[in-house]
Specification:
about 375 residues; alpha/beta; 9-stranded mixed β-sheet; 6-stranded parallel β-sheet
Length: about 375
């Protein structure tokens, strides 16, 4: 595939690594400036997406930019005849996400979302075990997504600016991953969301360092700008599934000692399953007689999912391989072949769940979500 990447931050580098691993050609990279694109180290550098699309003519555009840019960049890519693989969340509003889906349909192109946690082999194995009925009737789903990205009040990124991130920080940035993961693993839809939001650091200081984004509005200081943060850095959510099961999760960016802890815990009438993203090579199987620690082995997956794991048991696979798996399936779908990957419709679904949490926290009530 001839690929163009929009964005030059850390997540764009993860995409680049997976693209090259899959044999793709990084033909162009568009940064917020020409200098940032030049420093990326791959592809022809651009500071203007329209020019890049016209000159590179990519098969697919990987969008790795702040949330508020996704809509305009995705629509431009579709109009240029390219497919799109977009970082989550799909957009900052349901309306924008819907316009992106309409643009893909008009162009006859494929839109995929980087819900990379679907790419872990053991996530797929848990999904298969639940779908087979082995776990029994679903009773409870719990877990968390916790990191320390917002722990220090001195920390500032574009995620704290509503105009760029949307109406939420913690839920838009990491909560959407947990919501997509639990629906994907269980095969059930969340139909009710109850949420409580907290903003533990309501003021932060922008100082113009790399990665902080453009100068935001706020109170001018000698060393930068004091910004009133309007989005949450911590959320507690409860969910109800369409089969009557319930659950809860902590979504936190202020958790010391957790650089990136995503966990899912499932209870069925026959057994329970626990998995964490920081230790992706094993999961716990819980039964009445005790716990069984199961490690990844290629032979456990169904034959049609063998692409998800290529190293022997005991040889660790992780974050990069999960990205590779999602990208490879998305590209396969873009070539018109049978494939399973998170689509723009899945991105819209995730955004609807996040919007339900936002409404619930603001209105202090449970919000119903259609399947």
């Amino acid at each position: 595939m001839k690929v163009a990447i929009v964005g030059t931050g850390g997540i764009a580098k993860v995409h680049a690594r997976a693209i090259l691993h899959l044999g793709g050609e990084i033909a162009g990279v568009c940064g917020s400036s020409l200098d940032s694109a030049k420093s990326f180290g791959h592809g022809r550098p651009y500071g203007d997406i329209e020019r890049m699309l016209a000159e590179v003519k990519p098969d697919v555009v990987h969008i790795c930019t702040p949330n508020h840019l996704h809509k305009i960049q995705a629509i431009a890519a579709f109009e240029a005849g390219a497919h799109v693989l977009c970082e989550k969340p799909i957009a900052t509003s349901i309306e924008d996400a819907s316009l992106m889906i309409e643009a893909a349909a008009r162009a006859g192109r494929v839109g995929a979302i980087m819900y990379h946690n679907r790419g872990y082999p053991l996530v797929q194995l848990m999904r298969e075990r639940i779908a087979s009925g082995e776990v029994g009737r679903l009773l409870r789903v719990g877990g968390c997504y916790m990191n320390d990205e917002g722990l220090s009040p001195d920390r500032f990124t574009w995620h704290f600016v509503s105009k760029q991130v949307g109406r939420s920080f913690a839920m838009m940035d990491i909560g959407v991953h947990w919501l997509d993961l639990v629906e994907h693993v269980t095969g059930r839809f969340i139909c009710e969301v109850t949420a409580q939001f907290s903003t533990h650091h309501p003021k932060r200081v922008w100082s113009g360092h790399p990665g902080q984004g453009p100068r935001p509005p706020g109170r001018e200081l000698e060393n930068g700008v004091e910004v009133d943060v309007q989005v949450e850095d911590h959320a507690e959510i409860m969910v109800r599934f369409d089969n009557g099961a319930s659950g809860s999760a902590t979504i936190s960016t202020v958790s010391a000692g957790y650089p990136n802890r995503l966990a899912i815990s499932v209870d069925g009438t026959n057994l329970g399953l626990d998995w964490t993203q920081q230790e992706p090579e094993w999961y716990l199987e819980r039964r009445g007689e005790g716990l069984l620690k199961r490690f990844r082995t290629p032979n456990d997956l169904s034959p049609d999912k063998s692409y998800m794991t290529f190293l022997p048991a005991g040889h660790a696979e992780g974050h990069g391989e999960a990205f590779r798996n999602v990208i490879s399936q998305a590209w396969r779908g873009m070539r018109g072949k049978p494939a399973e990957f998170p689509s723009f419709e899945d991105g819209l679904r995730g955004l609807r769940l996040v919007e339900a949490a936002i409404r619930s926290a603001a209105e202090r009530r449970t919000i119903t979500v259609a399947p």
